[in-house]
Amino acid sequence: EEVTESDDEDNLSSVLHQRAKMPWRACGKYLSAAGILLLPLLVLSQLLKHTVMVAIDYCLARWTSDAISGKTEIELKNCSHCEDFNHSPYSKVFSILCCLGIVLCLVTSIAVEWTGLKVTKKLHSSLLNKIILAPMRFFETTPLGSILNRFSADCNTIDQHIPATLECLSRSTLLCVSALAVISYVTPMFLIALVPLAIMCYFIQKYFRVASRDLQQLDDSTQLPLLSHFSETVEGLTTIRAFRYEAKFRQKLLEYTDSNNIASLFLTAANRWLEVRMASTLFFEYIGACVVLIAAVTSITSCLYNKLSSGLVGLGLTYALMVSNYLNWMVRNLADMEIQLGAVKRINGLLKTEAENYEGLL
Q1: Spatial CB neighbours of 163, under 8 Å, sequence gap ≥ 6
Q2: What CATH number corresponds to the domain at position 343?
């Protein structure tokens, strides 16, 4: 009995460990389906776009600080014949960077949608070929609703939701990294204040991801009987009408629908829980206020003693105000991406189905 209990504990711990892990294989399967040329284009366009966005903010900060310093110098010299500050070089550089940022945003959006379209077509065609060539024992042991769910809900998730979530996740992650890079360049002491905020986000997303994945699996498991019952009802409609069992099958369909709606309701409530915890808790707001306070104090101190320009101080404070928001969106998008990668994982499981053996047939 002691051996049995220890084995059960080991199995439970292994299950919990698997629940806490990210589906990296499904992520690799999705990215590998994009192709060798399209994936580097997607990554490079994202990096270039956010680099240009940071360059635009830096150029605007430098323009502002130079304009203020030039005006102050003219007032100190009290020179009426001195030339005014020349804004032309700054405006040209700023316009070029803005145009380049618009073009890169367009290229990034096209690359993301193109990646999603190519991955969906490849996975759908591979799944269709596997199902057509599958042996008869596969259809005898696999529910019809499960097959329909792979071609309908999972393909819809891969086609519409994963590209948008991937773009949001990459954007929020790169925005967070670029904000940290700018703040560490302006005021390196700010990184000390970021430690409690990062720890809190880590534990919240770790706590949320397991529950969110389980609720998504519950939603998927309650959707399979609904699809199976509907398809069986449509196929046997003549027999059902002959025995006058319409009310019984209608009631069964409503019960399956209620079960699936309950699971969807809990999943939506879990998403709202994350939004409330990440955006509205007093502890999180206090930490964000402390982060901004420390960034402001260190920026002003650097400006007074290290001759840091006022434009860079404003740039650092602006990014400090947005760091908590970037972390919030990064955690939410990471949880959504993990849920949606379950569709790739389920389709990848069907792709491992062995085809019927046609050797010896004419």
Answers
A1: 112, 113, 115, 116
A2: 1.20.1560.10
